[in-house]
Amino acid sequence: MSPRHVRACVLCLAVLACAEPKSEARPPVVEAPKDSLALTAPGGVEVWYIGARTGRDSAGGTCIERSMEIRRDGTTTLIPLLYTGETPTLANDSTLRTNLWLNCRPMRRYEVNLRTGRPVPK
């Protein structure tokens, strides 16, 4: 490589090093919603939304997908790995129904045992 090419390469590297980095588009920061009651069931059972994540659909829109826990007699039971964007419903006295949400859309329907918190796909 000739000295002229070396100087040109060094100059290009210097310009690139001084250039401002491109800012990446980041989703807006959404404040986590407060715990809120989602559903009541017989026997003093309450189902609460407790956590949230921001979902993003294929068009770039956002939504809030909520996690839940069961509260009864001063105890709490987490419903694991189930985020939803809809209000759960009662299937019967011991089971709730809701859809797992991913990327701002309902995926698979689940039934959750209100005693154990275990979600079962349906």
Topology:
Blueprint: H1 3-18, E1 36-41, E2 45-56, E3 62-72, E4 75-84, E5 89-92, E6 95-102, E7 105-113, E8 119-121
Antiparallel strand pairs: 1-2, 2-3, 3-4, 5-6, 6-7, 7-8
Task: Considering the chains and any ligands shown, give keywords for the structure.
13% helix, 8 strands, mainly beta, four-stranded antiparallel sheet
Task: Explain what the structure shows.
- The model has no long low-confidence stretch (mean pLDDT 85).
- It is built from one helix and eight strands, in the order αββββββββ.
- The chain has one domain.
- The strands form two sheets. Strands 1-2-3-4 form a four-stranded antiparallel sheet, with no helix packed on it.
- The chain has one helix spanning 3-18, and strands spanning 36-41, 45-56, 62-72, 75-84, 89-92, 95-102, 105-113, 119-121.
- It is 13% helix and 52% strand.
- The protein has 122 residues and is mainly beta.
| Structural class computed from helices and strand pairing | mainly beta
What share of the residues does DSSP label as strand, in percent?
over 45%
C-alpha termini separation: 68 Å
Which regions have little confidence, pLDDT < 50, spanning 5+ residues? none
Number of domains: 1
Count up the helices: 1
Major sheet size, sense and barrel closure: 4 strands, antiparallel
How are helices and strands ordered from N to C? HEEEEEEEE
Assembly state (oligomeric): single chain
**Fraction in helix:** 10-25%
Global outline: elongated
Overall number of strands: 8
Instruction: Strand order, main sheet: write it out.
Output: 1-2-3-4
Rg calc: 25 Å
What is the residue-mean pLDDT, rounded to a whole number?
85
